[in-house]
Amino acid sequence: MKQISNRTALVGAAFLMATSAIGPGFLTQTTVFTQSLGASFGFVILTSIIIDIGVQLNIWRVIAVSEKRAQDIANMLMPGLGSLISALIIFGGLAFNIGNVAGAGLGLQALFGIDVITGSVISAGIAIAIFLIKEAGRAMDRFAQLMGFLMIIAIIYVAISSVPPLGEAVLRTVLPTKLDLVTIITLVGGTVGGYITFSGGHRLLDAGIKGTAALPQVSRSAVMGISVASLVRILLFLASLGVISQNLLIDEGNPTASVFQLAAGNIGYKLFGLVMFAAAITSIIGSAYTSVSFIKSFHKKIEEQENKVIIAFILVSTVIFVFVGKPVSLLIVAGAINGFILPVTLTVMLLAAYQSKIVGSYKHPKWLAVFGLLIVAVMTYMSANVLIRMLV
């Protein structure tokens, strides 16, 4: 029974990470960047997948062997550092969640024709219901898996319907004709930046899967999470590329919906609604759960009332969207900000991997540490270049 429970938690953690990444911003970014880069966007996706795997393996392993959450690890390295990182991640998580709530409303509007505000409130209610269940963790795992499978099936249908130029996509994935640093930073930030990279690791910790003995399982779960998110990204890229290659006009107001509709007609539009709703509601759950996990160790009452605090986080996100709305570029900007935060959080975890007071006698693989340092260097360089361009 315990083995089955562990397997459920491992798969659930992978899907929680993946579906946290696959939100409205993820869908919008993929479509918009395919429009601007064409088949060369495949190279950006490949680069981001390599970076994502390196980030996840380093961070999840350190969390598992230390048996501590990221903020506690950071505070052990330098008092106050964990609190600073928590503040940054909660800010990013809230920004993403406002967009997630809006995206869920858009999904229900496409599916059933209801008002976006009404749809967002219904979606928030469904997400809150997950955390009202006694076995909230298990319910969250199952729900993330179900929504993940629905998204994959729907996008496969649309990708096939759009008839993408596969040969060109493969060629430009290796030999791109266009390249943009902002897209790489935004993609990495939107997939493993901010709260997203810690969602699965913290979930495994809460499920009791930790310690050196659990490392093989933890590593498999991390790679599975990236694989699911990457599969959805690739399929959506191919669907968008197929539409673009036919010189069809994509609606800039709602590019992803436009791609689905142009590729598969009215069925495609309904499938867009399903994918957008599934992506958004799982991201609402993942964002709220992970953001709160960054503060629950700061006070015993937060940990005791964790589900209530998560519900409050969802309610705040919903109220802000309903009464204030969100800027059109919010999700793209939030992804980019998370990309800037990533080198900091990854550096902290790499330093922690060699502190015996944090990881005990554990020996972090040298190749993984070198991989992580290369990612820090590359992401820092790209982030600095983007910042300079923005300021000049």
Automatic annotation (TrEMBL):
<feature type="transmembrane region" description="Helical">
    <location>
        <begin position="271"/>
        <end position="295"/>
    </location>
</feature>
<feature type="transmembrane region" description="Helical">
    <location>
        <begin position="143"/>
        <end position="161"/>
    </location>
</feature>
<keyword id="KW-1133">Transmembrane helix</keyword>
<dbReference type="GO" id="GO:0005886">
    <property type="term" value="C:plasma membrane"/>
</dbReference>
<feature type="transmembrane region" description="Helical">
    <location>
        <begin position="37"/>
        <end position="55"/>
    </location>
</feature>
<feature type="transmembrane region" description="Helical">
    <location>
        <begin position="76"/>
        <end position="98"/>
    </location>
</feature>
<protein>
    <submittedName>
        <fullName>Divalent metal cation transporter</fullName>
    </submittedName>
</protein>
<dbReference type="InterPro" id="IPR001046">
    <property type="entry name" value="NRAMP_fam"/>
</dbReference>
<dbReference type="GO" id="GO:0034755">
    <property type="term" value="P:iron ion transmembrane transport"/>
</dbReference>
<keyword id="KW-0472">Membrane</keyword>
<feature type="transmembrane region" description="Helical">
    <location>
        <begin position="222"/>
        <end position="244"/>
    </location>
</feature>
<dbReference type="GO" id="GO:0015086">
    <property type="term" value="F:cadmium ion transmembrane transporter activity"/>
</dbReference>
<feature type="transmembrane region" description="Helical">
    <location>
        <begin position="366"/>
        <end position="388"/>
    </location>
</feature>
<dbReference type="GO" id="GO:0005384">
    <property type="term" value="F:manganese ion transmembrane transporter activity"/>
</dbReference>
<feature type="transmembrane region" description="Helical">
    <location>
        <begin position="110"/>
        <end position="131"/>
    </location>
</feature>
<feature type="transmembrane region" description="Helical">
    <location>
        <begin position="181"/>
        <end position="201"/>
    </location>
</feature>
<dbReference type="Pfam" id="PF01566">
    <property type="entry name" value="Nramp"/>
</dbReference>
<feature type="transmembrane region" description="Helical">
    <location>
        <begin position="330"/>
        <end position="354"/>
    </location>
</feature>
<keyword id="KW-0812">Transmembrane</keyword>
<feature type="transmembrane region" description="Helical">
    <location>
        <begin position="307"/>
        <end position="324"/>
    </location>
</feature>
